[in-house]
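Translate structure to sequence.
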């Protein structure tokens, strides 16, 4: 066997597992989205009717746009909260820095359901949020404004996905050479100028990565809206879940999942292109 043949053999061997576990399921989903369901049976005839139904029905398309907007809000809030936290941890000295980092990412080691029920109890009528506001005199009686609505979904997603934002930002900050910071200070730049001209630009790739984590994870999350969203916290993830679990319209559910996948892929490619062009 020639050297080129050996290289191709190694490549095919390495690519087989990702192709089997990732590409094949996605491809089957794409094919399934082109079929249609009739009387709980899947009719294997190629059609774009599912996509036409999705974009032609405002109930579905409006829910999709609302979900994308919600995910952008989750992403923005998570970055606004996560960046100062990561920067504060990075500023610490010695082992204290990594101890704080461990505490910040500790929720990653907890069960997703446990985190959801914990936040649900905190946002409820007798939860920590209501009790704190009552104690401060801001509320006269417990409010239901923090649970079973879109606001509850936003708060819960931000809290759950915050560690996914803090970690890449911290790693990006760690990669900044200390000599650059020292040189900036030696040349007379103040702390704000050093942050604005050195720290912020060099940490933006990590910030973009963290933002993408929050956006993509929130986009596909259907459990959080179901647990804390109530009837007004409906997202496209719950619609897709209902198509597979209740309506038994798998082709239509696959079409919506494909649109969700393309949306996430577009965001990832856009961020990657921006970083490659050094616009961030």
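Result:
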């Amino acid at each position: 066997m020639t050297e080129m043949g050996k290289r191709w053999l190694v490549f095919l061997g390495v690519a087989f597992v990702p192709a089997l576990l990732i590409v094949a399921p996605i491809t089957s989903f794409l094919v399934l989205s082109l079929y249609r369901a009739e009387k709980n049976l899947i009719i294997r005839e190629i059609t774009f009717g599912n996509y036409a139904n999705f974009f032609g029905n405002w109930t579905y398309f409006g829910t999709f746009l609302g979900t994308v907007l919600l995910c952008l809000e989750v992403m923005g809030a998570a970055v606004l909260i996560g960046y100062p936290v990561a920067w504060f941890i990075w500023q610490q000295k010695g082992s204290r820095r990594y101890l704080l980092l461990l505490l910040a990412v500790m929720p990653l080691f907890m069960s997703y359901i446990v985190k959801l029920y914990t936040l649900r109890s905190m946002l409820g009528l007798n939860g920590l949020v209501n009790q704190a506001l009552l104690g401060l005199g801001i509320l006269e009686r417990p409010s239901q404004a923090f649970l079973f609505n879109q606001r509850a979904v936003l708060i819960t997603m931000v809290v759950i996905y915050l560690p996914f934002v803090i970690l890449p930002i911290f790693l990006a900050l760690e990669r900044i050479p200390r000599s650059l910071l020292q040189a900036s200070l030696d040349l007379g730049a103040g702390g704000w100028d050093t942050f604005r001209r050195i720290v912020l630009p060099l940490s933006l790739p990590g910030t973009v990565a963290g933002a993408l984590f929050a956006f993509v994870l929130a986009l596909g999350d259907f459990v959080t809206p179901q647990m804390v969203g109530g009837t007004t916290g409906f997202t496209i993830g719950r619609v897709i879940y209902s198509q597979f679990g209740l309506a038994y319209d798998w082709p239509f559910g696959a079409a919506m999942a494909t649109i969700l996948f393309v949306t996430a892929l577009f965001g990832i490619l856009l961020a990657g292109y921006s970083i490659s062009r050094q616009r961030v």
